[in-house]
């Protein structure tokens, strides 16, 4: 039985998520927006019966059993943790800091019977599902190098807000880089042990952000990860070098490319399509085309994320639909999802890359095992 | 009047160079090979009237006024310096070390009336000539980021030799990375002040290299350059970040891509073609197609190098042909060539990247101004 859904957020992802959920048979019962006006406007547009700017109104809504949180990073932790405490299943975006991510992990551990996933849709994109499968089957031989690049137009909102602020989770590294950190760990079955990075903010002001306000979030980012011990138990990726290049000063472009190179061949996901070449082969072959699938290309939601989101919503349906209880779910269909533990790892890598950009040195990735004492400075 | 040419080397570059020289009207008078047999074999194949394995036989040959040196890096310095001392014009490949490059600079300064250029053919490739021109005209606005990538099959020779040895100038960084270091400095008008890099040798042994022998040269390399003060006086590139990714574990592939991104647009050279997009434009435009031009695609000589070599030989013809003396030349046509001073800068960057890969830290690029005391260890 499919649970009723409450959606947090009125941005572009929330806007595409609602029709995807409905397409799979979910009922979207409630919408939360930062302001009453934003909530009302999108609820009317999408025909959602209830809207509010009070988070409790959604969390305590009797018809809401699954909460999807697609809001600014600094608000995510609070709502996700509260939702779990109230007994609701949670799909959410990343948090703003490792400390927030740690608090989310603590909550998820406390309620293991509830679904708690970080909605990195790339893991569900069929091209990456196939890439992971082929890696496990040895298509590329011994994995050596992963190289990911995303180029696109500015990530800044029209008006000044969290997207402009590094400390609020804005910037290419936090917004897009984190999805790649998660994906590369998922693909290789390994985790970064050391990272080196360089962040830049080339565009500090623009037509909308001026005066005393300046953008502090990165629009160019470049980092390397040396992968070590296993993250998921497969561990084929130990010793692999990953390089990631992000550039969001490219209006009109959208490039999303992930390449894995090994001793026997290589696999390349370009956008939503997967290509491969074995060392003996005389040309690259298309291994998986774009299926079209659910959803149209939407402004501000790149196609790989949109398609991935569609597949993730399908997986959610599969997880819930055979259950008798509205809040019960099967683990199998969402086993490949990013857990809150993965979210903490990703946030730790993001912060290590930022540290490296300041220090100029390789920084170790050490995942928090205990919450830092909030009174440590007293 | 075109000078007679002596060619050093029997490798793939020497093999394509000879017909290119003849195509422009140069007479190739003499060929040097490492062994008598190698020299005889290629001289017969190409119909060169004189061959030898004694370098003096070419350098002192009365009909040779221009010497083209395309041999293993450790031998380059000795022959280039000697050729200048004998009064011959020199086009050569890079040296093996910064100390060697410094000795070549000293010789070039001592004989300023002789031509002395490092034959980095990429500078002459029409796509890069046009890219440099467009950068100067402000096509991309304020330059922010350069991103170069070269992927291809193994650079190792069939048998064990200098290509396998890091200290002899083998490896992707030294062989290919150096041409990009030179090109990026030429394009931006700036020089690297700090670099960070990572080198890997994934393939340490193969069918031909086995037993106790191991490859020490890199087959994967990844480095960043922060550009500072002007190298050529134009200085538009100060503050620019350059990233370079080299991967030579990709049999069957050849990718050669150089992208420059600025505040107003971007330019991308893919292989021998130049594309551009201004920020307002709704799609990428082809700015310069591949002209076909001289030479066919040849094994082991990537098309951008082959086409660039063709353009460089044309420039050499233009430099020499209007002169009455066989050894005189006009500076204009070869003004864009890489000088021995540029060669020293490039070698300095290459060594700084290697240091960085060992230290894990950003390393400064400090170009030698004095030859290190050879007795410093006594």
TrEMBL record, chains A, B:
<dbReference type="Pfam" id="PF01408">
    <property type="entry name" value="GFO_IDH_MocA"/>
</dbReference>
<dbReference type="Pfam" id="PF22725">
    <property type="entry name" value="GFO_IDH_MocA_C3"/>
</dbReference>
<keyword id="KW-0272">Extracellular matrix</keyword>
<dbReference type="GO" id="GO:0016491">
    <property type="term" value="F:oxidoreductase activity"/>
</dbReference>
<dbReference type="InterPro" id="IPR055170">
    <property type="entry name" value="GFO_IDH_MocA-like_dom"/>
</dbReference>
<comment type="function">
    <text>Promotes matrix assembly.</text>
</comment>
<dbReference type="InterPro" id="IPR050463">
    <property type="entry name" value="Gfo/Idh/MocA_oxidrdct_glycsds"/>
</dbReference>
<dbReference type="InterPro" id="IPR036291">
    <property type="entry name" value="NAD(P)-bd_dom_sf"/>
</dbReference>
<protein>
    <recommendedName>
        <fullName>Glucose-fructose oxidoreductase domain-containing protein 2</fullName>
    </recommendedName>
</protein>
<dbReference type="GO" id="GO:0000166">
    <property type="term" value="F:nucleotide binding"/>
</dbReference>
<comment type="similarity">
    <text>Belongs to the Gfo/Idh/MocA family.</text>
</comment>
<feature type="domain" description="GFO/IDH/MocA-like oxidoreductase">
    <location>
        <begin position="128"/>
        <end position="267"/>
    </location>
</feature>
<keyword id="KW-0560">Oxidoreductase</keyword>
<dbReference type="InterPro" id="IPR000683">
    <property type="entry name" value="Gfo/Idh/MocA-like_OxRdtase_N"/>
</dbReference>
<keyword id="KW-0732">Signal</keyword>
<feature type="domain" description="Gfo/Idh/MocA-like oxidoreductase N-terminal">
    <location>
        <begin position="5"/>
        <end position="112"/>
    </location>
</feature>
<keyword id="KW-0964">Secreted</keyword>
